[in-house]
Every structure is written in structure tokens, then in C-alpha cells.
Amino acid sequence: MSRPTELLRVAIAEDEPLARRALRRMLQEDPAVLLVAEVEDVAALTALLRHPTPVDVLFLDVRMPGGSVFECLPLVRPETLVVFTTAHAEHAAAAFDLDAVDYLRKPFGARRVHEALERVRRRRRITPTRTDADGHLLVRVGVRDVPVRLASVWRFEGADDCVRVVTADRKLLHAVTLQSLEEALAAQGFLRIHRRHLVNSGAIRALVPHDAHRLAVELPNGDRLVASRRGTSVLRAWSQRAAGAAAADHSAGGTRS
Questions:
Q1: Of 103, 123, 117, 113, nearest to 20 (Cα)?
Q2: Does the keyword Phosphoprotein apply (predicted)?
Q3: How far is CA 140 from CA 3, 69, 130, 181, in A?
Q4: 82: which strand partners?
Q5: Mean pLDDT of 171-196
Q6: Confidence grade of residue 132 (pLDDT, cut at 50, 70, 90)
Q7: Cα–Cα distances in Å, from 87 out to 20, 100, 125, 212?
Q8: What per-residue string of b and e applies to 74-106 under the rule 16 or more CB within 10 Å gives b?
Q9: What digits encode the pLDDT tens for the residues 195-226?
Q10: Where in the chain is the domain with CATH 3.40.50.2300?
Q11: Does domain 130-247 have CATH number 2.40.50.140?
Q12: Model pTM?
């Protein structure tokens, strides 16, 4: 049995009424598209991007009245994919620099719209947990991949369909599951201590009892995260390994002296 096509929540940002109507008609030919919003200027686009419920796909005209569309892009949620639409070819390079899924040059037809939707679906099926050779996690912020040094990450916290990346000086949302991060970073000292928490062992300042069955970890800023019972077992095993490694290092140092 084939897997049903996921429903995509789509918004259109287009100031020309005829172009907006044509794009709406082409999108509605796809039964797995739910058109949830249409905006026609930068002020309305800003309000859309600040709405607490993000869209899956934004078809975005590069030029709209009321300001710069590109200045709005930092407001794009990590889980929202952008398809640029414009008659101005000079914006193509900038669009792809911003990791747009596709770039539709006006005038375009239904075939190109459906190709863009398929690119969106392929992108959404990709697990976005990626690291580079220099020890950075590539975190999706707006329409850019921002490298965050893994050693600087204190913890990851599950937040609905995203993960909150917490460092000493910032918090970022990343469109990835906590499970995929756990699998990708297990060898780099990250411990799953709770259904919602993945902690960098290098950021743990102390283990403290929470109750008769559970431990809590203390982070550099004094925050404490309570582990689940399973997470407590993970922490105890990690603590024993760390103590054993420290004892071995001490013994080796004494032998050398």
C-alpha cells in the first residue's frame, strides 16, 4: 500500500492580483495542498511570519510594496520552506544563497508549480541533522544553515516538531527530531536524559539527587534538568565511566612520575 501524500499548508505572498489568482488556481489543483493565507504587501507578510502557527511552504514574490522582502526572511521559521516567484532574473542567485527550495521565473505554468511542490516534499523527507568537519551542527535559522559549534551547546530540548538548541548565549529552533540528534551525536558525548532533553556531558557541572529514583543535572548557569528513571540510569553509567577514566589517567600519571 502506498503512503498517503502529506497535506501541505501553503501561503502565497504576491502583490499582483492576477498573478496571485493564477498561482492560487494552480496550487488548488493539488489535492494535498491546503491554502491557508494570501498576503500582498510586506506588512502583511511580516504578520504572517510572526503568526504562532507556521506554514509548511511560502510562495514568495521577491518584490512587494511596503519594504524589502529579504529583510523579512529572518522571521521565516525553520520548518517553513520558501519558493521564490518573480519576473526579475537578477534575484535568482540571492534566492539560492538563502537556500530556497525553488525559484519560479514569471510567467510560469502549472507544471513548474507542481515541480516546486515535489521539491518541497523531497526536502521535507530529508533528516536535517547535519554536522561539518569542524565540529559544527548546521542549524536551520530562517532560510539559512547556521553553523553552531557542538562544544558550545549545553542541551537540546524537544519543542513540538522542532528542537530548541541552547548554548551559553542563545537559543535557536532547529527543524529536526530529538531522536535523530541523539543518534547522530551519541559518539560526541550527548546524553538522552529525558524524553525532552539531550544534554552535552561536557556541560554537566554536577549530578544532584532529585528524589529517591531520579537525578538532576546542573548546567553552568545553575539550571537543573530532572532526568527520567531511564535517563538517571544513563547518567549513572556515564558517571561511572568518567570516574573510571579519571582513575586510569591518575594511575598512568603516577606511574610516569
A1: 113
A2: yes
A3: 27, 19, 10, 14
A4: 58
A5: 85
A6: confident
A7: 13, 16, 30, 66
A8: eebbbbbbbbbbbeeeebeeebeeeebbbbbee
A9: 889 999 999 999 999 999 899 999 999 999 99
A10: 8-125
A11: no
A12: 0.52
Query: How many Å apart are CA 130 and CA 184, to the nearest integer?
Result: 8
Nearest to 33 by CA among 90, 105, 113: 113
Distances from the Cα of 29 to the Cα of 10, 111, 113, 159, angstroms = 13, 11, 10, 33
What is the structure's pLDDT at 88? 74
Is 238:201 a contact under the CB 8 Å cutoff? yes
Q: Please compute the mean of the pLDDT values over residues 85-103 and round it to a whole number.
A: 71
Q: Is the pLDDT of residue 62 over 70?
A: yes
CA dist list (Å): 169 to 153, 172, 217, 238: 10, 10, 19, 26
Pairwise CA distance, residues 161 & 89, whole Å: 35
- Residue 179, Cβ density class (10 Å: 0-12 exposed, 13-18 middle, ≥19 buried): middle
128 band by pLDDT with thresholds 50, 70 and 90: low
Residues 99/139, Cβ–Cβ less than 8 Å: no
- H helices present in the chain, as ranges: 17-27, 42-50, 69-72, 92-97, 110-125, 178-185, 229-256
Residue by residue, DSSP assigns 126-186 as S----B-TTSEEEEEETTEEEEEEGGGEEEEEEETTEEEEEESS-EEEESS-HHHHHHHHG
Could you tell me where in the chain the CATH 2.40.50.1020 domains are found?
130-247
pLDDT for residue 118 is more than 80: yes
